Amino acid sequence: MSAALNPENVAFKALATVFANRAAYEQAQRLAKVGQIPLQRNGYITWLLGMRGGWTAMRDAPAVPPQTFREWWAQRTENRLNRLGAQFLVLGSRFWRDI
Q1: 31: domain range?
Q2: Are residues 24 and 46 in the same domain?
Q3: How far is CA 1 from CA 4, 10, 93, in A?
Q4: At 37, phi and psi to the nearest 5?
Q5: For 9-55, how does the pLDDT look when each residue is reduced to its tens digit (9 = 90+)?
Q6: I want to staple 44 with a disulfide (CB 3.0 to 4.6 A). Which of 10, 51, 60, 79 is the partner?
Q7: 3-class DSSP assignment, residue 61
Q8: SS percent in the chain: helix, strand, coil, step 5
Q9: Which of 60 and 93 is assigned the larger pLDDT?
Q10: Is a pLDDT exceeding 90 seen at residue 73?
Q11: Domain count of the chain?
């Protein structure tokens, strides 16, 4: 079998292409969330099709989390900025009241 047709090489080339493009990577994350639905049980992927089924016969893989790190970080940052803005407004109103 040619190295170019080796399934592992094909998989890793596809992975490299997805990882090199932010939009493709984020789309793959969204697809993974949806694609895992029939395979997921209690937060774990307990079975897979084909040759991968042997691997999951002895192990469970964690399911894709409902929120990506980037989504979590954006939400955290937004919440933090909102809290800082609210604190600034309170402190600013006290400052102007005392003058």
Answers
A1: 1-35
A2: no
A3: 8, 13, 74
A4: -50, -50
A5: 999 999 999 999 999 999 999 999 999 999 888 889 888 887 777 87
A6: 60
A7: strand
A8: 70, 5, 25
A9: 60
A10: no
A11: 3
